[in-house]
Amino acid sequence: MKNKEIEYPLNTRPGxxxxxxxxxxxxxxxxxxxxxxxxxxxLYLLEDDNGWTMxxxxxxxxxxxxxxxxxxxxxxxxxPITRLICTHFHPDHMGQAGWxxxxxxxPLTMTFGEWTFGRMLxxxxxxxxxxxxxxxxxxxxxxxxxxxxVRDRGxxxxxxxxxxxPMGFDRIADGDVITIGKRDWQVIVGKGHSPEHACLYSKSxxxxxxxxxxxxxxxxxxxxxxxxxxxxPLKKFIQSIDILDKLPRDTxxxxxxxxxxxxxxxxxxxxKSHHDDRLNRLISACDSPQSALDLLPILFDRELNEGDxxxxxxxxxxxxxxxxxxxxLDRVRGDDGVWKFQKSGERHKAVA
Length: 352
Ligand SMILES: [Zn+2]
Prior knowledge:
Blueprint lengths: L18 E5 L2 E7 L7 E8 L4 E4 L6 H14 L5 E5 L5 H4 L2 H8 L3 E3 L1 H12 L7 H9 L4 H10 L3 H4 L9 E2 L5 E4 L2 E8 L6 E6 L4 E5 L21 H12 L7 E4 L8 H22 L6 H8 L6 H20 L3 E5 L5 E5 L2 H6 L1
Helix pairs in contact: 9-11, 10-11
The site of zinc ion (ZN) has 5 residues, from loops.
């Protein structure tokens, strides 16, 4: 299911810590991230009358801080950073928010859902993995070795990837318009990848800063995690596709990973067909009760390593919960205490 109708009209990209002007007063910045499969994050600088607005901040590493310092020196035309907008709370986006806002004495601008989630995860970090996390992974079928890895991981990975998350923020919400220089940017909130992800859309120039809500080459991660064990994020993601689908066809998309592209609608269509395919595979596999772990090989065409498995299970649960929400799967607890998924109605048939 390769999508051929995505184009990368710039045919180039900035180097580490360099900038590339995508449109007048709009700089694309690219920073390394040590996450396999992602490798780089794209950040954007929007020129305002008396300063610059930064969109997303990068992981909290010294390397990235040094790259930012050099960009601040070379590319801001002597103007300060006056605002930081983070699209969502994930560490590659919000990691440097504490450092940037402290350095420039500026507010952090985010949606309520993203700031509170990031602030909460930062504060609740602990050395020991909490019992509710262990219970969550036990109830979805992790064996003892996998549970031990969850324990060994502890509960402070998020905090370690962040500079201190600011204690306050400036709220943006869906439909808000932020004027930066000569452009009006409309906030479009997308869901599913994170609670209340902000995309920024300039109607006059046909530009969409899409964060992780729309990415070329890969599908955004949609997962269920212990904080909300019954979440149905795929439903929210598909609803967000329908919102973004209304944007003009020639929109130039500035994503947080990979390259600037056109073909938004083709990519959204691809997401739908990708998830439909996974949902159909699950339905066919659930004639008898299956745990999220049982279903992993059904969902992924490649063998997952241990590191990928927890994200894979999170993704698998998201698809199962979607089908439960649509009334196509039942979620039932097995005698072993593990949640299982089964085609709706099969249970009753078996009893009859
Ligand atoms: Zn993300």
